[in-house]
Structure formats: C-alpha cells, structure tokens
Amino acid sequence: MRVLLLHSDFVEFQALKKALKSVPDLTEDEKKPRRYEEALVVFTSVEKEDEGKEESVARKAVEEIKNVADQVHPERIVLYPFVHLSSEPSKPDTAIKVLGLMEEMLSTNFEVHRAPFGYYKAFDIKVKGHPLSELSRTIIGDQVIEEEEEEGLEDGIMEDLYVIMPDGRMLKREQVDDPGVEKAIKAELGEISEASFGKPPHLELMKRLEIADREPISDAGNLRYYPNGAFIAELLSRLGWKMAVEDLGGMPVRTPYIIGTDDPGVQRMMGKFPERTYRVLPGAREKKQEFKLRPACDYGVWSVFRDAVLTHKNLPFGLYEFDIIWRYEQRGELLGMYRLRNAMMPNFHEMTKDIDQAFERFLEHIDKFALALYHYIEIEPSVIVLNCKRDFYNEHLETFKMWAKKLKIPIIVKLFKKMKTYKIAWIDVLAFDNLGRPMEVDTVQMDTESPKWWGITYIDENNEEKYPVILHTGFGVDRTIAALLEHAYGAKQKGENSMLPVWLSPIQVRFIPVGEKHLDYAVELAKKANALGVRADVDDRDQSLGKRIRYAERHWIPYAVVVGDKEVESGNLSVRIRKTGEQVSLSLDEVVARVKKDIEGRPYLPSPFPVRLSRRPIFVASN
Predict the structure, then answer these.
(1) What's the CATH number of domain 2-147, 3.50.80.10, 3.30.457.10, 3.10.150.10, 2.120.10.30?
(2) Cβ partners under 8 Å of residue 167, min gap 6
(3) Which of 133, 240, 389, 585 is the most buried (most CB within 10 A)?
(4) CATH of domain 156-257+296-486
(5) CB under 8 Å to 237, separation ≥6 — which residues?
(6) Domains 2-147 and 156-257+296-486 belong to one CATH topology
C-alpha cells in the first residue's frame, strides 16, 4: 500500500463522474463540493500485494497515520483514494475494504472524512509547508518504509561535489574544464539523460554481428541472444568467475530467482523501490500466494549468509553468483543493452569484520575486479565516481588522491549528508563511448545496513555476535557488450578497424579457400587450429573470394586466412590481421602462436560452431 500524508490548511474536492462502472451511484448530497480545513489528507493506493491482507495492511496504515497525527495535531483526517500512487493497484473490492477498515479504526480517535472511491474528482489543496507536512510511506505486510521527500538523488541527499585530478588538485565543479568530466557530472546528477546523446551505434551493431536483438514475444527490455552473443556472454561469465573466485577467493553459490515477500529482510529491501519488481503468481491451488522475480541476487545470498555459522576466523568470506536480474525499468529509461529489464550480472558479495577490513578489501575489489574488468575488455576507463559521506571521504582522502595519480584518471566525488539505501561508500567506473556518453559497467559498494535488516551476524574474538560490513561487487554483462561495441565503433571513427578483443571474438581465425579444390586443406587447417585451442572455421559458401573476404571484415574476424594454390604447396598462409590492417605470410603454428599471445591470461572456450560456415544458419536477415 502506498500512502502520501499532507498536512493542509484546506482540501476541496468534488466527485464529477464514475471512473469505475461497478461503484454505486452517489447521492445528490454526496455530489456536492466538499471543503475541510486543518486536515491531514491521506492519499492512498491499495496494491495487488495487499489482496488477502486487508486487515493487517489497514491496521498498519492506521498506526502510521496516528503517529503523524500525534506530531502535527490536525483537526480532522481526510482519506482520499488516489490510484496513481501505484503502478500495481489492487482490485476495487480490496481497496474499498481497506479504506472502510481504515475509516472505522480512525473514527474512534479522530473526525474522519472519506472522498468517494472510483470517481474522477476535481480537487484543490494547500499544504502547510513545514518539515512534517509532506510524508510518504510504503506499507508491505507488517513493514512501513519511510520515503524521503527532500530533493536529491535516488541514493540520498548530496551536499557537495569535488573532482580529484590526476595531479592531485581538488576542484569544485565550476573549476572543471574537461568536457568529458563535466558531461559525466551532468549524467551522474541526472541533468542529462542517456537518450539525449542520440541513438547508440551498438543498437545496429548487436544485430549485424548476430549478438542480440529485442525479443518480440517478451516484455520490452528483454533481449534474445543469438549464438554469437550467448557465447560472448558465457566468456564474460567465466571472467566474472576468474576475478571473484580465483583472484578474490570467493565461493560459488546458486540461489532461486523467485522469492517470497513475507521475510522482513525481503520487505525492507523491496520497500526501497517496490515499483521495480515483477510479480509471480503460482498455480491455481495457491492463488493467494505471491512471489517476486528478484531484482538482484542479494536476496538469496543474504539468506545464505544469515543461515551460515561464521566466526571472525572465517572473515573475509565471499560468495559469488552469476546473476539474472529482473527490474521493471520505466519504458522511457530503456536503452538498447545499456538499460534493460532483464540483465546478466556476475556478482560477488563479501562479509568483512569491520570498516577497516572492509576498506582494505574495498581497495582489492577495485583493483582486482572493477579496474581489472576494463583491462580484460581492453578499454581505458575515463572516470571513477566515488560516492560517500564526508567523514569517510576525509579519513581516506590520501588514498583517493593516490588512486587518481596512479590511474591517471579523474575521480568525481559525490558527498552525501544522508544515504537512502544500504551503501556507505561505493565507486562506479566509467568510460566514454564514441558519442561522449558515460558508460558505467561495474561497481564496488560498502554496505553496513543489509546485515541489520537480515540479521546477518558473526561471532567475534570475544564470543559476541557482531554485524559484518558487506561488499557488493559486480558488472553488467549486457552493458559490457554494449561498451565493447561502442568502443569498437569509436575506433572506426578514428580510422582504425573495429573489432572485439580476440579472446571475446566467437571466431578468431577464418580460413577462406580460393576455390573448391582448396576446401579440404582449409578444413584440415581449421580443425588443427581448433585442436590447438584457437577457434577457427572455414567460409565454404558459394560466393566470390572478394565477397567472402569482405564478409570476414564486416564481422570483425581477427585473423582472415586466404588459402590458394601457393598456400597448399608451401604451407605458408596469407593472413590478414584485422588489428593492424597488415597482410603477412605465416605458418599455421605462427598464426596459432599470435592468437595464443592475444588471449593469454583470459578465459577460453572452444568453438561451439560448425567448422563449415555453410552449415551455420543466418539469424539476422540483413546479413
């Protein structure tokens, strides 16, 4: 249930006509304009998840209204049904029942009036304007979530902003003369939208390269991944495993995608952004039971942390999960692979003993995960955004200056006087695409609140229960692929050849036989290359040599090898190297050695594709 409480000098309203055919007709007296002065006006929207819980929801709402009334001392209370507070309103019968119960419960202590339900109404209101005159609440079961009415960012109320330059200078926003940094600041503060930069080139590239496309039989913001894209996503998931499990010492888990809403921890977390969740209704036998698609794997990981028996000797202790998330982003916010309603995220959560250990590991997560990701995808980060409270910032200022100097990139520092969510400090690493759009693909966050919400504790050296500090670290697979495509497109604008990193290229070497008589030798070469750990195929289609060479270029094949009479006789191959644009003569072993050097230290998977290109279907007709 959503509630907006406005302490008002007056409220006036008049029912005009029915919005719902099922509601009863009003009497002539009820149709007259109404005016109530010195009123606490309670705008209410009963939601779908309140169905079957009418009495408990009404009782909790009344408790909250009484709490506010005891502070502002109104002469009367006006209950005003206002369906527009929720994106998931309940059935009319449920809303009418809840409002009736609220009116009945409040009437024992207050003069109560109720605006008609199910009618379009004209209304006028004058709110008093003191600190308690505008309050909103979300009621989920027995939980009440207070929502800030102050102006500010989604994560809290920002009080200041600085930029730490690589030379150690501390600049106020008005002193910044770097256009890219200023654009990143505007994006961070919501002064410009992602869409304002224009149509991202990756929208066309993801189709042309047969990576992904919108799925027409699903909800907006849900993509279908073609074999190329699914393969790239799998390699990126392996990278997530490498960084979280191998490099940072995490342990893997798998947790359910659907979760119940009765747990207090779930209620508290979902209460922050309830409009972002998808509802899941089970079968006919359990119609009253309701679940949600989880908007992050935190829910399952927190449950595992809560049930684990942990002491200070186990910490730091991390859990890794390759996450599928569902967040009901607004339609206007959806933008290609940048912002989706269904997305993939390798996520690492680590429990630490205290702030000191958390900050030590915070630095390691940034180095071995957040910045390492950019190293692996071969994109230079442009800006780090650091969000924290002033005392945290002052305590660690020298470390932040060291980062800027060592990384040779600016750090935008957003200082908050109040945080709305669980985070006390977090960083986002940004790169700019070819349109100058800041691209954020990964984050590291410090969390002191979630353990309290969930009752996650460990036993310290004195055999006492303590709340840990938890680190959240992860990156968006879809956003990373978008960043790779945008970066590659940007290279083209500079006169360079667009390509993916060789380790992420689905096919690394393509053999192109000049004629039919060279086909068997080309297939033999491709099979040998695959056996040696290089993904290779053969373009055996019935097309001209020039067209097949252009096709390899159009699909960003890193090494294209033409096989003709000379190559069959000598064993030396004519190789086009996409990165440098040069054409050289190499043996198969030398081609393999070059690819192995390109992919050294990166995740590897063998080719899942047919060796002969003619046996591979076309997924995007424009190809």
Answers:
(1) 3.50.80.10
(2) 405
(3) 240
(4) 3.30.930.10
(5) 322, 344, 346, 477
(6) no
Query: pLDDT, tens digit, for every residue of 130-150?
Result: 877 888 888 876 566 555 443
DSSP readout, 163-230?
A: EE-TTS-EEEGGG---HHHHHHHHHHTTSS-GGGG---THHHHHHHTTSEEE-TTS-TT-EEE-HHHH
Which structure tokens are listed for 457?
């504790």
Report the alpha-carbon distance of residue 265 to residue 300 in Å, rounded.
Answer: 11
Q: Which of 334-343, 367-376, 511-520, 529-538 shows the lowest mean pLDDT across its residues?
A: 334-343
For residue 316, whether the previous peptide bond is cis, meaning omega lies within 30 degrees of 0, is yes
Structure tokens at 297: 């794997």
Mean pLDDT of the chain: 89
Q: What is the pTM of this model?
A: 0.77
Homologous superfamily of the 502-615 domain (CATH): Anticodon-binding domain (3.40.50.800)
pLDDT digits (tens, 9 = 90+) for 199-251: 888 999 999 999 999 999 999 899 999 999 999 999 999 999 999 999 999 99
In degrees rounded to 5, what are phi and psi of residue 226? -75, 170
DSSP secondary structure string for all residues of 378-426:
T----EEEEEEEHHHHHHTHHHHHHHHHHHTS-EEEEEEEEESSSEEEE
